[in-house]
Write a structure and sequence with these properties.
This protein is mostly helical. The chain is 68% helix and 0% strand. The longest helix has 45 residues, at 3-47.
């Protein structure tokens, strides 16, 4: 959840609290005399009962019902909060790797088809998020229940960040033969649309981020479809230096920025932002894992087979641990605390992936 969105929610909560407080004060002033009359009425009803048991029942019912009516809104809010948490856990995605990316025969495909698979891996998770039960959440208005599914929203923000970075480097590196050539028109427009703010909202699906991201996905699908047909304007040119740049992008950009959030000093991270950091890092890890899986199955030019597969498998395994990381409650665990420090746990998986990708980069560079 962005800082701007959090400020808006806080303002809504404060305004609601002031409004409810004002209503209760007004009701108290207006109904003070009525309360006295009601108590006198209850006393008369109780006095009219012959037995002690019936007197107790009358007192309980006639006093409890008004208080229950006053507490009902609070109970309703608690129930809604519990339902939202339950829905967020129940709808937590499995995030399995697309079967197309796992096909070991991908290395036998043409270089254009391999390029299509790399692009498919870059936006596979973004497509899942856009087509999920609640769709794209980061741009939902604060008054909507989905705006409070912060784990989901932050995972989607991480997915968007990683997808944008990967599409940009792929479009700039592999859709042309050299620096003097133009990028593919579909991938260039797609990366521009993917750069739109993830929390932008607009009336009737106009000028909002979800519309732009869906359009970007459709453009990438067009490129992939033409590349598989070896169309003249949809090519892929993947050289060893391109692999070096792509792997470096995954390490330094896709994983590097979330890693900085995970390793920040606890004093710099508010208690309410702990889960935001963890699930943002998870979103980026999903895209990075899918990219590494696609690189493994395609192995353009056979560059990764030269001693790099073990490191690649280890990096994928570490990122997969982040993908399936879903504690019921994200805890801080400062210093020698008995409680777990979930940020540190996720950062350890990130560190393992970093080391393996670094070794892989060096082997491709050589």
């Amino acid at each position: 959840m962005t800082e701007e969105k959090r400020d808006i929610i806080n303002k809504w909560i404060l305004a609601s609290f002031k409004a409810i407080s004002s209503i209760f004060v007004a009701l108290y002033i207006v109904s003070k005399a009525s309360v006295v009359q009601y108590v006198e009425f209850v006393q008369k009803v109780v006095d009219g009962r012959r037995f002690v048991l019936t007197k107790m029942i009358a007192w309980t019912l006639m006093i409890f019902v008004p208080f229950a009516a006053l507490l009902a809104p609070v109970g309703f809010c608690v129930i809604v909060a519990i339902l939202l948490i339950g829905i967020d856990q129940i709808t937590y995605p499995v995030n399995t790797v697309n079967k197309q990316l796992l096909d070991e025969s991908n290395h036998e495909l043409s270089i254009d088809e391999q390029g299509a698979i790399l692009f498919a891996a870059a936006h596979a998770q973004m497509d899942r998020e856009l087509n999920s039960t609640f769709g794209w959440c980061p741009n939902d208005l604060p008054v909507l229940p989905t705006a409070f599914l912060d784990n989901r929203c932050n995972r989607q923000l991480g997915v968007h960040y990683a997808t944008r970075e990967m599409i940009t480097i792929l479009s700039e590196r592999i859709t042309k033969f050299g620096l003097g050539d133009e990028e593919n028109r579909y991938t260039m427009e797609a990366r521009q649309k993917m750069s739109y703010g993830p929390d932008e909202w607009g009336w009737y699906n106009m000028s909002n981020s979800e519309k732009y991201f869906v359009s970007a996905s459709e453009l990438l699908n067009k490129y992939e479809s033409e590349a598989r047909k070896s169309a003249s304007d949809a090519l892929a040119n993947i050289k060893s230096d391109d692999l070096f740049i792509i792997l470096t992008q995954i390490k330094d950009k896709v994983l590097g920025e979330p890693y900085g959030r995970l390793t920040a000093r606890s004093s710099k991270v508010a208690w309410g932002e702990l889960d935001d950091v963890v699930y943002y890092a998870q979103g980026a890890a999903i895209v990075a894992r899918d990219m590494l899986v696609a690189l493994r199955s395609t192995d353009p030019g056979g560059e990764l087979a030269h001693g790099g597969m073990n490191n690649l498998d280890a990096a994928i395994d570490s990122l997969d641990a982040v993908v399936h990381f879903n504690p019921y409650w994200v805890m801080r665990g400062d210093g020698d605390s008995l409680f777990a420090d979930h940020r540190s746990k996720v950062s350890r998986y990130y560190s393992e992936a970093f080391r393996r990708i670094e070794d892989l980069v060096e082997s491709v560079k050589i």
